[in-house]
Amino acid sequence: GQQLNQSPQSMFIQEGEDVSMNCTSSSIFNTWLWYKQDPGEGPVLLIALYKAGELTSNGRLTAQFGITRKDSFLNISASIPSDVGIYFCAGQLNTGGFKTIFGAGTRLFVKA
Amino acid sequence: GAVVSQHPSRVICKSGTSVKIECRSLDFQATTMFWYRQFPKKSLMLMATSNEGSKATYEQGVEKDKFLINHASLTLSTLTVTSAHPEDSSFYICSADILAKNIQYFGAGTRLSVL
Fold it and tell me: Do residues B20 and B79 lie in contact, with contact meaning Cβ atoms separated by under 8 Å?
């Protein structure tokens, strides 16, 4: 079946550092989504990408839809303590109906 | 926009009882809603896809008689955990799909603890 490989699994960084995480797959996706989940909460949509090569920013966050449509990355610049959480990528396929597949998540820890 | 409300946020129940969790799209209509289960430090596990006016589609390994899903209107889906057991304790999260965007917006989740 379709799978997303999200890495790294976890990151421990110092406040102010930049962060990068990515997702890859052997499948081609129509849409890539990035979510953030705070402890005890549901995931919140950060960025949605619709076209191959698309680069989109949301404040200090930047995400790109890979040219091959099989990968995406998320960058966070100048991290702050409230960036702590789990970041999930999600790829969307159209298989006669839309199917969304989630990565395993990247746990981000920011040390002040 | 795109607010999804999930209730309750936390529930503690005795083994053998049933628990109902509600998922509402507050400012949009959702023909499709999704129910996920999340174990500690794990990713989201899709349990079922709920379609308004029709039967839910369950993922492999999810017991449909155990996890009853009803999607009676375009803004409400419910998940009922029947005859709950301690192993059903988990974090349950719903999401709703905006038809034109095919993007899932999530509720805040329900922490179920079965004693």
Answer: yes
* Cα-based angle A23, B106, B114 (whole degrees, multiple of 5): 105
pLDDT confidence of residue A57: 96
- The mean pLDDT of A74-86, rounded to a whole number, is 97
CA dihedral for B53, A41, A19, B2, sign (positive or negative):
positive
Distance from the Cα of residue A2 to its chain's centroid: 17
Is B37 within 8 Å of B21 (Cβ atoms)? no
The two tokens of residue B115 are 């004693």
Apex B31 CA angle, A58 and B80, nearest 5: 100
Q: Which two tokens stand for residue A19?
A: 């962060």
Structure tokens at A32: 């890539």
Q: Looking at residue A14, what is its pLDDT?
A: 97
Give B33→chain A minimum CA distance, Å. Answer: 12
Shortest distance, CA B83 to any CA of chain A (angstroms) = 24
User: What parts of chain B have a pLDDT lower than 50?
Assistant: none
What is the C-alpha to C-alpha distance for residues A51 and A108, in angstroms, rounded to an integer?
Answer: 27
Instruction: Say whether residue B6 is in contact with chain A using an 8 A CB cutoff.
Output: yes
